[in-house]
Design brief:
There is one protein chain. Helix 2 packs antiparallel against helix 3. The termini are far apart. The longest helix has 28 residues. This protein has 99 residues and is mainly α. It folds into 2 domains: 33 residues; 48 residues. It is built from 4 helices and no strands.
Length: 99
Amino acid sequence: MIPSTLAGWTTVILLGLVSHALGQGLTSVAVGRAPVGLVALVILAQPPFSALFAWGVLGEAMTALQMAGGAIILAAVLLSRPSTASPTIRVRPSERARR
C-alpha cells in the first residue's frame, strides 16, 4: 500500500494535509471559540457518525462489536448533555464586585 509514483505520494501528502492538519487546526479553533460542552459532544460523536457515513456511502460493513461501541458512545453523548431545566444561578451586581 506504499505509493510508487509521484501522483500516489502527492495524493498521500494532500490527504494528510487536508484531512489531518486542516481538520485538527479547525478543531483547535473551535475549542477556543465554541462552548466547551458543544465541542466535547461533537468530538465524541465523530467516530460513530464516521462509521455510519462509511456504511451508508462506501458500503463498509460494521461488526457487532463496532456497533455496540458506537451505541455506547452515542448513549454517553446523550446522557452528558446538560438538562434544560437546570436552575440558573444569578449573581447580583453587588456580589460580583466582592468576588
